[in-house]
């Protein structure tokens, strides 16, 4: 009888249930506290999480919101960005960055990224016009961009800075946390993020008292005092108390999880050094929190197909840069406008990455790439 071939080891791209194995009891207890108190809307856990997340980011204030998108949109509104203004961001980001600019009535102006996908201060500088009001650098994949250069550019030109830190919880550059540089910064707690809620959630962080005051009103139908509505337009964009309860439990583990991600990145770098792939460089500790581990290959699609056959899940972030998205055709960009963003879209592949990945998982990915490179 023929021996049965063993199915290859299945490696998930991200497994959001893995961290719940250890945390389920603690999170369930925190949620049952909310259920007993019944403070589902802007309850005690929201206040506590806002204090703890602000302290973690080393900023004065955090405001709990329903998503990272809302953090971007309300940051722009609170800073007075609107019709007639231009806001510069990079061509390769998740569409939420640009959707928020459009939602406030401003015009998104795209700039190319550098070869690794980071916001490029020189490209931002070139895109500035007399109508530019703000810059939105994106800490794409979890790596803090060149914030000293971006802040210098903003200071020299009198522009606002909003960090899109939706992928970079806990990253640091030169001792400063992602989110602590801008006039305001946006975080997403989408479940697969480095700090993920049990559904959609987000936060805005800022050192500016005027911004925090306006955003607290904007998220809550314009109320600073119950039933007195003094901000318009205003919205319901509050963070649910149940999410805050879970996020508080998880925030205490974030640094450990980010350290695990960095070790997995090191294992990948050691194991993949000899193959024809471009890998994220090893650099200042903590600058990159590896929300995603993105490699670049000339044979990306064939490599991805081989990994899929080997039961290894992968992703592409992002397959179509924003200037080529059908929904953004009206911005008037064309193929060839942003060569680095286009090159990344055709060559980048995100390998499995989550803090609980085992050495066996990482070895399975490396072996499958070894087989492919034969
Ligand atoms: C770079 C970036 N910006 C904004 C967002 C929007 O966050 P959310 O999905 O929580 O609205 C995300 C995440 O999805 C993101 O990755």
Q: SSE order, as H and E? A: HHEHEHEHEHEEEEEHEEHHEHHEH
Strand content range = 5-15%
Quaternary state reads single chain
Strand order of the largest sheet: 1-9-8-5-4-2-3
Per the principal axes of the C-alpha atoms, what is the gross shape? Answer: globular
* Global mean pLDDT: 96
Which structural class matches the secondary elements? Answer: alpha/beta
Distance between the termini: 30 Å
> What small molecules accompany the polymer chains?
pyridoxal-5'-phosphate
Helix proportion range: 25-40%
Overall number of strands: 13
What does this protein structure show overall?
This protein is an alpha/beta fold and 374 residues long. Helix content is 38%, strand content 14%. It is built from twelve helices and 13 strands. The chain has helices at 20-37, 44-57, 68-78, 96-103, 121-127, 147-157, 209-218, 241-251, 254-272, 300-309, 339-347, 359-373, and strands at 61-65, 86-90, 107-111, 132-136, 160-164, 172-173, 176-177, 184-188, 202-206, 223-225, 228-229, 293-296, 348-351. The strands form four sheets. Strands 1-9-8-5-4-2-3 form a seven-stranded mixed sheet, sandwiched between helices. Strands 6-7 form a two-stranded antiparallel ribbon. The longest helix has 19 residues, at 254-272. It is globular and about 70 Å long. The two termini are 30 Å apart. Bound molecules: pyridoxal-5'-phosphate. Pyridoxal-5'-phosphate (PLP) binds next to α3 and α4.
């Amino acid at each position: 009888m023929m021996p049965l071939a063993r199915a290859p080891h299945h490696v998930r791209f991200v497994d959001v249930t893995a961290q719940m194995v250890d945390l389920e009891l603690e999170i369930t207890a925190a949620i049952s506290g909310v259920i007993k108190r019944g403070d589902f809307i802007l309850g005690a856990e929201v206040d506590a999480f806002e204090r703890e997340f602000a302290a973690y980011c080393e900023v004065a204030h955090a405001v709990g919101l329903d998503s990272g998108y809302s953090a971007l949109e309300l940051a722009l509104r609170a800073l007075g960005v609107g019709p007639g203004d231009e806001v510069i961001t990079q061509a390769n980001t998740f569409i939420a960055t640009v959707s928020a600019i459009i939602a406030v009535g401003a015009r998104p102006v795209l700039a190319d990224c550098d070869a690794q996908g980071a916001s490029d201060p020189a490209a931002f500088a070139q895109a500035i016009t007399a109508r530019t009001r703000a810059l939105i650098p994106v800490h794409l994949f979890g790596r803090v961009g060149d914030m000293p250069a971006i802040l210098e550019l903003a200071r020299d030109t009198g522009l606002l800075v909003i960090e899109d830190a939706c992928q970079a919880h806990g990253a640091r550059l030169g001792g400063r946390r992602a989110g602590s540089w801008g006039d305001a910064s946006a975080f997403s707690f989408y479940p697969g993020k480095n700090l993920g809620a049990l559904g959609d959630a987000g936060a805005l962080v800022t050192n500016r008292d005027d911004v925090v005051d306006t955003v607290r009103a904007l998220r809550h139908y314009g109320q600073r005092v119950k039933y007195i509505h003094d901000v318009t337009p205003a919205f319901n964009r509050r963070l649910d108390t149940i999410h805050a309860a879970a996020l508080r439990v998880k925030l205490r583990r974030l640094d450990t999880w980010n350290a695990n991600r960095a070790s997995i990145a090191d294992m990948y770098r050691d194991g993949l050094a000899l193959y024809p792939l471009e890998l994220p460089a090893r650099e200042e500790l903590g600058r990159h929190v590896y929300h995603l581990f993105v490699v670049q290959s000339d044979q990306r699609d064939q490599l991805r197909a081989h990994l899929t056959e080997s039961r290894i899940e992968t992703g592409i972030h992002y397959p179509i840069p924003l200037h080529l998205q059908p929904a953004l055709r009206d911005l008037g960009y064309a193929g060839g406008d942003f060569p680095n963003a286009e090159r990344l879209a055709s060559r980048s592949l995100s390998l499995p990455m989550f803090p609980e990945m085992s050495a066996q998982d990482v070895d399975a990915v490396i072996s499958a790439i070894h087989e492919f490179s034969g």
